[in-house]
What we know:
- It is built from seven helices and four strands, in the order H-H-H-H-E-H-E-H-E-E-H.
- Strands 2-1-3-4 form a four-stranded mixed beta sheet.
- The protein has a single domain, classed as Glutaredoxin (3-Layer(aba) Sandwich), CATH 3.40.30.
- The termini are far apart.
- By secondary structure, the protein is of the alpha+beta class.
- About 55% of the residues lie in helices and about 15% in strands.
- Helix 3 (about 45-60) crosses helix 5.
Amino acid sequence: MAANPIPNQTGFPKTYGMVMAVIVVFAIAALLLTRPTTAIAHLSPLSGLMTLKASVQTAMPYGEAMANPQPTLIEFYADWCTTCQALAPTLDTIHQQFGPALNFVMIDIDAPQWREQIQQFQVQGVPHLALVNPDQTVADTFIGKVPQSVLANRITDLMISGA
């Protein structure tokens, strides 16, 4: 009994392999060329921590802000808080957007000198944002990561209405 010969298909696997290789190369190139570059920086925990530390340096001292007759945004934060780090670029943008019209204060919850303020503002977790009226009453509180648009709209409303 004679064995049936296997048909010669040497051209198909080579062509198929080349087509797949070209598709993979184009897919990788498309991914690399279309990804937003700013999203990469915001994903880095180190960049969030660096932004958080830079914000601390430019923030207004608490006592000075409370004596100043304009709205104040107080961020209660911790260096170890990854949500605080992720929120740092948003708050930096808010700080730049409103500039000197808004007092921007940062309070490290791990620093013992802030225990009274932590109790006063009923901080249960971080990030905790307190939006304070010029008369030092709390206008609004946000806990966790807040979208920039929500925070900007609320600050604008506070500045327009005064409450």
